[in-house]
Amino acid sequence: MLRRANGIASLLLLAVLSAHAIMGALFCWGVVSGEASWIVWAGVCVVVPHVVLSIGTTRQMLHDEERLPSAKKKTHQAKKWVSGIAVGAIAVAHALLACGNAAWIIVALLLDVALATHICISAKSLVKDLGLASGLRYAIRALTIVVAVFTGLGICVSIGG
Q1: Spatial separation of the C-alpha atoms in residues 139 and 146, rounded to whole Å
Q2: What would the pLDDT profile of 124-134 be if each residue is shown by its tens digit?
Q3: Nearest to 94 by CA among 104, 86, 102, 85
Q4: How do residues 63-116 score in pLDDT, each as one tens digit?
């Protein structure tokens, strides 16, 4: 049950963060203007349950006496946690910096790469948690890379602007 709930939270977070990234890139290009802070707050509202559920699912996996976690599974879990913590730390810096200055551009690009990395690492777990076909992890990874490249290009436009 925890895994399915975390899968749903992860999918919602993927949608919200993708929307924020795409809108941010469009903002950098000058295509859209206006306030979209509601997207950020929607993301925050989903991040908290995602982290709590991730703690629960990790604990369950590590203490599963029927299906003992393999070294490979533990390593995969560690990669998800390290990349997720990196995303969180960089996201805080991203939120605290003024939009458009050099530090913001660097941090935004770092966040773009860190988030894409975290999603690509976690895609296998996501489809499993939601009971989807395992091949869908490749579609999630491909979509993530497309959004990351689009976002990165938008951020790079900020350099010239």
Answers
A1: 11
A2: 999 999 999 99
A3: 104
A4: 988 888 899 999 999 999 999 999 999 999 999 998 878 999 999 999 999 999
d(CA 144, CA 18): 8
Phi-psi region of 8 (alpha: psi -120 to 50; beta: other; left: phi over 0): alpha
Q: How far apart are CA 64 and CA 58, in angstroms?
A: 10
pTM of the model: 0.91
b/e string for 73-98 if b means 16 or more Cβ within 10 A? eeebbeebeebbebbeebbeebeebe
CA–CA gap between residue 94 and residue 27 (Å, rounded): 16
